[in-house]
DNA sequence: TAGATTGTTAATCGATTAACAATC
DNA sequence: TAGATTGTTAATCGATTAACAATC
């Protein structure tokens, strides 16, 4: 279990899980690395190795792997059955979308409140969760055991806001601003829309079908 | 210019651009690979190579590189000064966020209209753009020169909707649904929130500060 | 000039892929 | 049994990093 998992590998696990849940919902009991590989356009060997690294049981030659067990193992590994508490910082359109989206709970993340500076939004509710002023953040989140901040502010204030979050003891920042952020002691995951779009555009214009 | 650019490399270009624009706005005229590398926590050699691959001019030993020229080269390379037309398919909270966000224009993407099945939304405007019924999509987009679809439907209908988009002649799908999609002749870029969150959580819980 | 930075060629590293004996 | 699938060890591949002479 303490084997090192690369970030690319980590990205694949939710894909496996999604696929396996689809199988499970169709009443399928067993599957195998080759079948999964085919469905997700990966190589058999890669799937086999990935699953070995997180599963509590061995696969069985010929029979393959138990779908329900694998789902359970993946959910455990990804921490989906243990809710982390999160805040949304920057309750613009994107922030609002997140506050109204309950689906993150399935991924082990519970959004409990939002923060903004806009007086029209501060004091209101969004997705049934309160929105506070950013100035009160440090005080407000004390004792609430909040681990993660979803950062959806304008890019111009991303850095200073991240700094504030670091001081407030946030453990991880899920950064949607497009700014490059780096803080000692805080894990930062960049969801860079511009980078993703750059890949899409480049592949469209160069007609290279593969990654 | 027809050198092969890897997807990892492609992801870095918007980061360079963002950094260079910040420099430019501060009135800084020149920079160098080592300085950029330091600012973005990359290696000097990597920055040098990346910039070589897209820039129209050589850097100058000692002096480094011209910020304004580099910005221009990057914008050209990324296609930011040539607008592609896009639609939003699935105008829920996330889709609405995109329809109200004008920032994609800076990235060469113009959202012109939305599609949904919800009668409360169909026929209305969102972010000043019309929302049509998905059933009318194939007919409606004809002749509008729409290249890209931003897919923000529920995951359950992602596959069938993607199929519809492929038939309608869409060139690229920017997939936010979390489903694995694959269609012959259509470029698909997956913006997998679950994968990103998996990386964040894993690093928080394992205290590994780096990617 | 001296030294920072360049472009380019070679070495390293890590992830993916291939090979293969073991087994239900 | 026969054959699909397994886990594991070795080979390949591609991207990152290091090395170095050239130069403003």
Folded structure, characterized:
- Two copies of one chain form a homodimer.
- The first copy, chain A, is α/β, with parallel strands linked by helices and 211 residues long.
- Chain A has eight helices and nine strands.
- In chain A, the strands form two sheets. In chain A, strands 5-6-4-3-7-8-9 form a seven-stranded mixed beta sheet. A two-stranded antiparallel sheet of chain A has the order 1-2.
- In chain A, helix 7 (158-167) links the parallel strand 7 (146-151) and strand 8 (172-175).
- In chain A, helix 1 crosses helix 4 (67-78) and helix 2 crosses helix 3.
- Chain A is elongated, with a radius of gyration of 20 Å.
- Chains A and B meet through helix 1, helix 5 and helix 8 of A and helix 1, helix 5 and helix 8 of B.
- The structure holds a DNA duplex (24 and 24 nucleotides).
Which structural class should the secondary elements of chain A be placed in? Answer: alpha/beta
Question: N-to-C terminal Cα separation of chain A, in Å?
Answer: 30 Å
Most strands sheet of chain A: 7 strands, mixed
Secondary-structure element series of chain A: HEHHEHEHEEEHEHEEH
Low-confidence stretches of chain A: none
Topology, number of strands of chain A: 9
**Share of helix among residues of chain A?**
40-55%
Instruction: Round the mean pLDDT of chain A to the nearest integer and report it.
Output: 94
């Amino acid at each position: 279990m303490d084997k090192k998992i690369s970030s690319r590998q980590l990205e694949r696990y939710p894909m496996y899980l999604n696929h396996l849940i689809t199988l499970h919902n169709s009443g399928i009991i067993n599957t195998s690395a080759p079948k999964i590989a085919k469905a997700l356009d990966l190589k058999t060997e890669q799937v086999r190795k990935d699953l070995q690294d997180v599963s509590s049981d061995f696969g069985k030659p010929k029979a393959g792997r138990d779908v329900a067990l694998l789902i359970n193992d993946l959910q455990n590994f990804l921490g989906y059955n243990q809710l982390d508490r999160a805040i949304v910082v920057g309750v613009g359109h994107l922030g609002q979308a997140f506050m109204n989206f309950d689906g993150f709970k399935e991924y082990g993340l519970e959004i409990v409140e939002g923060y903004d500076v806009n007086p029209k939004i501060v004091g209101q509710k969004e997705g049934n969760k309160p929105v506070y002023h950013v100035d009160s953040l440090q005080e407000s989140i004390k004792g609430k055991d909040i681990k993660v901040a979803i950062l959806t502010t304008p890019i111009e204030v991303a850095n200073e806001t991240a700094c504030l979050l670091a001081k407030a003891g946030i453990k991880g920042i899920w950064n949607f601003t497009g700014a490059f952020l780096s803080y000692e002691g805080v894990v930062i995951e960049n969801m860079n829309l511009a980078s993703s779009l750059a890949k899409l555009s480049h592949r469209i214009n160069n007609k290279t079908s593969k990654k």
